[in-house]
Amino acid sequence: MRITNKIMQQNNLSNINTNKVYEDKLSKQMSTKKKISRPSDDPVVAIRALRLRSSVTEVTQYYSKNIPDAESWINVTQDALNNLTEVLTKMISQCTKGSNGPLKTEDREIILEQLKSLADEVYSTGDADYAGRYVFTGHRTDTSLSFDKETDQFFDITEQLDPKAIDDVTKVFTDDLLNINSSNYMDVDVTEQEISTVNCHRIRLAYNDCVAEGAAPSVSFQKMRVDGDGAPVRDADGNIIYDEVTWSGGDIQTVHSYEDPYSKAANDPDAVIFVPETGELLLGENKYSELMSVKDDETTSADESEIRVTYQKEHWEKGDLRPQHYFACTSDPGGDNEIKYNEDYLTGNPDRQIIEYDVGFNQTIRVNSTADECFQHGIGREADDLMTAMQNVLDLESTKKKISELMTEAEGDEEATAHLKQQLDAVNKALTFAKDKEQKLFEAGITAFQGYLDDANLCITECGNRGSKLALVENRMQTQKTTFETLKSNNEDIDIAEVTIQMKSATTVYEAALLAAGKVMQSTLLNYI
Questions:
Q1: Structural contact between residues 124 and 87, judged by C-beta atoms closer than 8 angstroms
Q2: What is the reported pLDDT for 525?
Q3: Count of CA atoms in the C-beta half-sphere (13 A) of 7
Q4: Where are the domains of the chain?
Q5: CA 260/CA 250 separation, integer angstroms
Q6: Does pLDDT of 529 surpass 60?
Q7: CA 41, CA 174: separation in Å to the nearest integer?
Q8: What is the mean pLDDT of the chain?
Q9: In Å, how far are 59, 63, 495 from 484, measured between CA atoms?
């Protein structure tokens, strides 16, 4: 085959262009610090780069955003729970002081003031928020735990209780003793025999000041069916049969607090009395026994010991807990703005509104504690009972002091002195009853608040466990982030030293090619003729 000058020129130009393309490729790598600038440069590197970049982005999302966010949420929750435990510990301390022997009036006033302050602090702590989201309200992070102002909003509320929710209440009757003053003491005729107490069983609802007119509550529970011999009746599969019992309408009598509902409940064994002002259901002995006989059949998944109480409330004071965070309830039932909350609570498979964060590949962690786990209504209701009992003692002590002063002023007036002595004996008897009630309530308060403190400590422990787990995940994500970034760099990034040497070599080759082509082009057949 004859090689002509034209062929040699074309070959030289082709080789020079090849060297130039290679040099351009290395130049681009030097400029971008990347091995490829388009997928066609190296499809294998491009596909691997897409996968590694996706992994790096995902790990970065977990490590730089999700994990810090979850950690902050847990820290805010734990700080609020620490405040709660501090408040409950102080409440236990006040209960201990209130139950330890005789107290002076000044001591009672200090304890009462402390309890009021602590009771106000409990639920305000529950309104803790993180980045504008309330941390104890489940999925409703835009709604505060308690009402921030006095509000009128009608709610139909269903509480799910058990027989442990039934306790005893003592009422001390003081007649008109507390109304005695310097101008009417001769008109107030109260004897020692008229001072008495009465005990009855009650269910203390979560709220007081409930709707009274035309809205009597209902009570429903499961009662085991028995035969004539008192043995349980079973179905074909051997399971015990339970019948639902409901007390409503004529079964429950609404009696206002000023109408002496406690005596009516104590004297009628079949009574179920609703006291709307105090939010109490008072039970006669027979009704109490019927509810206390309710027990859970552990062989079934249902809770046969559950007692459901449905009632209404429409006026809310500042600081009252919102019912939608605790109970199955309906706002504005039957109205245009009706909203049903937590209907699944009544099905036996409640959604407790857990908030979880994705903190790793196929790994989530719970970050929230819900209000019903730690900020129970019982804390405030227990404090209310204690403060009411102590205030009653203080009122009687004030009356006793007033009568003693009147006796000093009436010295020499036998009739007035005798009348005041009669009243003083009545006050002393009332004080004996009231102080006994106060001491027993404060003793029971120690146990009650200790139970709430245990619940709060359990929540703190769970928060700590979540925090520890999150720290382990964070360490693992940090390692994975470093690994993926290293793999991504090895796949995409150039070795500067290596590419620099290759660039220098390519430049030398290119220059040599130009020099060789120049010499070849100078030689033709004419030079040999």
A1: no
A2: 54
A3: 4
A4: 1-33+497-523, 39-139+353-395+445-493, 143-352
A5: 19
A6: no
A7: 98
A8: 88
A9: 9, 13, 18
Query: What is the rounded distance in angstroms from the CA atom of residue 165 to the CA atom of residue 399?
Result: 35
List the structure tokens of 207.
Answer: 């709220």
In the prediction, which pLDDT does 497 show?
82
CA distance 514 to 15: 10
- Sole residue written with tokens 């504005």: 332
What is the 3 state secondary structure string of 132-199?
Answer: CEECCCCCCCCCCCECCCCEEEEEEEEEEECHHHEEEEEEEECCCHHHCCCCCCCCCCCCHHHCEEEE
Are the beta carbons of 217 and 247 closer than 8 angstroms? no
pLDDT at 358 over 80: yes
- In a 10 Å sphere around its CB, with 0-12 CB exposed, 13-18 middle and 19+ buried, how is residue 215 labelled? middle
pLDDT digits (tens, 9 = 90+) for 11-64: 777 877 887 777 777 777 777 777 777 777 778 877 887 888 888 888 889 888
CB 312 within 8 A of CB 215: yes
Six-digit token pair at 104? Answer: 């002076």
pLDDT of res. 73: 94
Number of residues that make up the chain = 529
The full DSSP string for 290-312 is: HHHT----TTSSS-TT-EEEEEE
Distances (CA, A) of 509 to 10, 29, 374, 495: 18, 18, 78, 21
> What angle (nearest 5°) sits at the alpha carbon of residue 323, between those of residues 78 and 325?
35
Contact 398, 133 (CB under 8 A): no
Q: Is 141 exposed, middle or buried (0-12, 13-18, 19+ CB in 10 A)?
A: middle
Check if CATH label 1.20.1250.20 holds for domain 39-139+353-395+445-493.
Answer: no
